[in-house]
Write a structure and sequence with these properties.
The chain has 5 helices and no strands. It is mainly α and 160 residues long. Helix 1 runs antiparallel to helix 2, helix 2 packs parallel to helix 3 and helix 3 runs antiparallel to helix 4.
Length: 160
């Protein structure tokens, strides 16, 4: 069962590494405002996210099974068990391998969280710019610059 866990964690490491690369590309495309490529990229990100959820479910199931086999939890109380707990009870050399994979995963997920925050800021700034542009257009359109005849409003001409 430890071998299955290592396999799943290795697959997650590769998948999250791919996701990190896609998020870096997303940041680049957001900065360039390339909406067509962003749309395609969003689809790829969704696919990877779906695969990640599947692997997370498998990992959780294996961790639950290991917790029961190690005698650290029964079937009703495995919700508190995580990878760190399993590592504590895992014999060498698998223990070191699990620690190494966990460190890689933590580094990658930290990078993903950082990029998600940065991309959110870029998107937020873009939305602020759009709102400001709409407000500016609304203010401009509120002026009655021309009379119904098409001539310049004489009151506005005096302001100049």
């Amino acid at each position: 069962m430890i071998t299955k866990l290592i396999d799943i964690l290795d697959r997650e490491t590769v998948l999250y590494g791919d996701l990190l690369g896609l998020l870096q590309e997303e940041k680049r495309l957001l900065s360039r405002r390339d909406k067509e490529k962003l749309h395609a990229l969003s689809t790829d990100i969704e696919k990877l996210t779906f695969k990640a959820k599947g692997l997370e479910t498998l990992r959780a199931s294996i961790i639950d099974g290991l917790a029961i086999s190690f005698g650290i939890a029964d079937a009703a109380s495995t919700t508190e068990i995580n990878l760190t707990t399993i590592i504590e009870y895992t014999p060498e050399p698998e223990k070191d391998e699990l620690k190494s994979i966990q460190a890689k995963l933590l580094a990658i997920t930290d990078g993903i969280e950082t990029l998600n925050r940065q991309n959110s800021l870029i998107i937020g700034k873009g939305l602020e710019n759009i709102k400001s542009a709409f407000e500016f257009l609304r203010e401009i359109s509120s002026f009655d610059t021309y009379q119904s005849s098409g001539k310049l409003d004489p009151h506005l001409a005096k302001r100049s």
